[in-house]
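Supplementary notes for students who missed Thursday's class. We covered one full example, reproduced here. Read the sequence, then the structure, then the short commentary at the end.
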Amino acid sequence: MSGRGRGYRCVGPVELKAAVRPGDGGRRIGSAADFGGWVVEQSVAELAEPFTFVVGMDGVLRLAPRRSEHVACAGGAMVLSAGEIGFMREADRWTVSEVSNQSTGYCPDVSSWSEVARALDAVGLRRLSGFTHEVVFRRCPDCQEHNIVREDDFVCVFCGGDLPAAWNVDPTA
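Structure (token representation):
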């Protein structure tokens, strides 16, 4: 693990991680030039919806088409954050229009925003002050199922057990 934030390993279906092959992975976006080269390759239709993203353990943003699996975007590796991100052209520059931590493969905590912010700042993209849509993930201590907490209701939708206040999705973390 790097000296950065918490790393998240894939906690999604094992068959998705098993399908990742060497060379798989999202496009590495480590600079403004990287983003500029990538964005001109995207169609208007693709730019109209969010993309899959991860922030690798090296702190670098990686982008893939929206319906890509996060674990494939990460090349099967651990990440500092994962979710969906949208861009829009604003005057003479690109800006982030929306960003979430919605990744059921990694279930990153909302605290992973700081890693996303660092990665976007390194690319020189104008960004928001936080996730536009925060997803709160928890693992039920009773039945071990992963849950998305809605409206601060920390109750397991599978068994009715209480969910913890702190992130606990990966029991090895």
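Commentary. The first strand starts at residue 27 and ends at 29. The helical segments are 14-18, 32-39, 44-47, 70-73, 113-123. If anything here is unclear, bring it to office hours.
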